[in-house]
Amino acid sequence: xxxxxxEFQRVIDLLAKLPGLGPRSAxxxxxHLVKRKDAAMLPLAQALEEAASAIRTCTRCGNLxxxxxxxxxxxxxxxxxxxxxxxxxxxxxxxxxAGVFKGSYHVLGGTLSALEGVGPSDLNIAPLVARASDxxxxxxxxxxxxxxxGQATAHYLTDQLENAGVKITHLAHGVPVGGELxxxxxxxxxxxxxxxxxx
Length: 199
Description:
Radius of gyration: 21 Å
Strand content: 5-15%
Shape: globular
Number of strands: 6
CATH class of the largest domain: Alpha Beta
Helix content: 40-55%
């Protein structure tokens, strides 16, 4: 007989499905929540319930917000001529935190992956092509990961956007700010050399 009640085990099992949490970490989190029921568990449950009913996906870019279109798409101060394409909403948020891009976004919802069975129809690609072909957009920035799947997705998008009449660019890859050459992998060094610029 298990020392853990079925209700508590259900909490552990659900937490274990979150990224970065395995069964042991999920057990520790569940114990922490139960020990601090009034200060942690109940407010978290209420916040999750409110978020589940209020948050929706922006039909224009794929961002998550309480409004549709999202606050970014509704902001008329942003440059409508540039679209930054990202894999997931977390990537969009990372770029927004950096505060360096003032155009619009497009969330693909992942990358092409033959191993995981993710094809073009599983991603938010057709709406991107339609947006890029609207006559307003002049540049599409491919801000996908420098992984095999990310680069395969970038090549596929480049082919799909060929007739849209827009400039297609991608983020630079190479030496990070503050990085020391001795600690970088060969792929990063090769990308940095290939993307070198004149000073």
